[in-house]
Structures are given as C-alpha cells and as structure tokens.
Specification:
86 residues, mainly alpha, 2 domains, 3 helices
Length: 86
C-alpha cells in the first residue's frame, strides 16, 4: 500500500488535485459542511401574455429556461433592494 504524504502547501495540493491524484486522504472531512440555502417554495404569478412573450424572447437569446431567468432577475432585484436599504 502506498503511503500518502501531506501536501506541504496549497500550491502543491492544487497541483496534486489538478493532476488527478486522489486527494481524499489529504482532506479532513470531519469539518465538511453542506450548505443548504433554505426550503424551496413554489409561487404562482398571473402576468400578461405580452410580458411572457417578452421574457421568452430574452431567454431564447441567451439560451436559458424561463423560470431560471426569472429567478436570476428576482435574486438580483432583492440584492439591489437590500443594498439600497442599508
């Protein structure tokens, strides 16, 4: 069995990772944490057909799903509003 030696610094760790070396023995998984950004909640919006058509034109140009585009826009707007309130 091959002995695993610790990486001396972050550059060596990155090099070993990038070269495809198994680095699992170099990581202390007891400190690992999974970040969950909260429970997802479904919302329903009634919007004008013309607005949906405009959104669809934009989403087709950039190649994303309608729902994904709306989520990004909502997220950006909430961040903007929160920053303005500080």
């Amino acid at each position: 069995m091959k002995k695993i030696t610790s990486a001396k610094n972050s550059a060596e760790f990155d090099r070993r990772f990038d070269s495809g070396e198994d680095i699992h023995d170099l990581i202390d998984m007891t400190k690992a944490a999974i970040t969950r950004y909260g429970k997802k909640v479904r919302i329903t919006l009634d919007v004008a057909d013309s607005l949906v058509k405009d959104i669809d034109e934009i989403r087709k140009e950039i190649g994303v799903d309608r729902g994904a585009l709306i989520k990004v826009w909502l997220h950006e707007r909430v961040k903007q509003e929160k920053a303005a309130g500080e």
